[in-house]
Amino acid sequence: MATLTHRFEVTLSDTARKEQISSPVPDFGSVTTDHMFIAEYANGQWVNARITPFQNIPMGPASSVFHYGQAIFEGIKAYRQVDGKVKIFRPEKNWERFNTSAERMAMPTIPRDLFMDSITELVQIENLWVPDEEGSSLYIRPFMIATEELLRVKPSDNFLYMVLLSPAANYYSKPLNILVSDHYTRADYGGTGFAKAAGNYARAMKGQVEARAKGYDQMLWMESPDYKYIQESGTMNVFFAIGETLVTPALDGCILDGVTRDSIIQLVRNAGHKIEERRITIDEVLWAHKNNLLRDAFGTGTAASVAPFQKITYKSMDLELPPMAERPFSNDLKTELDKIKYGQTPDIFNWMLEI
Ligand code: COI
């Protein structure tokens, strides 16, 4: 059970929701709830932490986030349990990663209690926004932006830390068709790939647009300059089942340390299956497919949960994955993870935080 250290100043909205949100839950990210959390960073300290009605924030056009892009975020989900309570999935992992991202982007870190309390108190206030439709959740979006008004290039001295909430239906409704990138990259060594920096998502948009225009759901991001090693897909970590073994790219500085990625690895290990975190080439995937050993492939992320791939296209070659009923990992892992998230099975890993 979450214990609060902070008591934030709270201003409630006059028009706040009075009943629990019902079906259909809006598309991912399209609706925000009635309240938000906001704190300011000035003179080396986090101050003025408060919960307010959802509202616009005044910012000068010279604020450094608009020019130099110091911006990081997190994605977390709260789930309506079968007994009606609300629990949040592994928020402490997101706090750790938020601070990893902050350090990489020369931004201030957030104390554990401030991060955890900002989320739990806001979700408590917005309890009626946590849906109970199958596959749905309340998406929690903590983020930090640079607000110093200065056009000189330097790390900002002022920041805003905020938390927004958004009721979320499933991100993908069907298995995905994936295009292997041969000229855009998402991340490079020495860069920010391991951080949840807004710029990582900005640089990936053009590839996503091109993949969509060709009829694909997402890009499979490859390592430059030879486009042989697989990194991620869209905004997800990736897994391939080759024979009996599940393989996922190792955390090499380019790969996001996904909370769902970590959870899948623990579930697979716990079930006694073989899992390898290592470099993986597209040639190995092609070879496995040719030899009928490519048994499953899927992406993982907070938004998408476990998203199976249907087809992977490399140059002009289409690799069709086996029908969903024959997948050895993606179905069972998604079901097992969902059961933990919705409180339908004992939380043996102690992942769920009750609020
Ligand atoms: C996630 O799935 O972890 C995300 O943060 C995706 C989000 C960018 C929509």
Structure commentary:
The protein is α+β, with helices and mostly antiparallel strands. The longest helix is centred in the middle third of the chain and has 16 residues, at 198-213. The strands form two sheets. Strands 1, 2, 3, 4, 5, 6, 7, 8 and 18 form a nine-stranded mixed sheet that branches. 23% of the residues lie in helices and 29% in strands. Strand 10 and strand 11 (230-233) form a beta hairpin. The protein has two domains: 9-170, D-amino Acid Aminotransferase, Chain A, domain 1, CATH 3.30.470.10; 176-341, D-amino Acid Aminotransferase, subunit A, domain 2 (D-amino Acid Aminotransferase, Chain A, domain 2, Alpha-Beta Barrel).
Question: What's the arrangement of secondary structure elements?
Answer:
Blueprint lengths: L8 E2 L24 E8 L2 E9 L11 H4 L2 E3 L2 E5 L5 E4 L1 H14 L7 H14 L11 E10 L12 E10 L7 E5 L17 H16 L4 E5 L7 E4 L3 E6 L2 E4 L10 H12 L3 E4 L4 H9 L3 E8 L3 E10 L2 E4 L9 H12 L10 E3 L1
Parallel strand pairs: 1-3, 9-10, 9-16, 13-14
Antiparallel strand pairs: 2-3, 2-8, 4-7, 5-6, 5-7, 6-18, 7-8, 10-11, 12-13, 12-15, 15-16, 16-17
**Which class do the helix and strand fractions yield?**
alpha+beta
Number of domains: 2
First and last CA, distance: 6 Å
Let me know the CATH homologous superfamily of the largest domain.
Answer: D-amino Acid Aminotransferase, subunit A, domain 2
Uncertain runs:
none
The pLDDT mean sits at 96
Number of beta-strand segments: 18
CATH class of the largest domain equals Alpha Beta
* Biggest beta-sheet profile: 9 strands, mixed
CATH-defined architecture of the largest domain: Alpha-Beta Barrel
Bound molecules: 2-OXO-4-methylpentanoic acid
From the 3D structure, determine the CATH topology of the largest domain.
D-amino Acid Aminotransferase, Chain A, domain 2
Percent helix:
10-25%
| Count of helix runs | 7
What Rg is obtained from the alpha carbons, in whole angstroms? 21 Å
Order of helices and strands: EEEHEEEHHEEEHEEEEHEHEEEHE
Shape: globular
Strand content: 25-35%
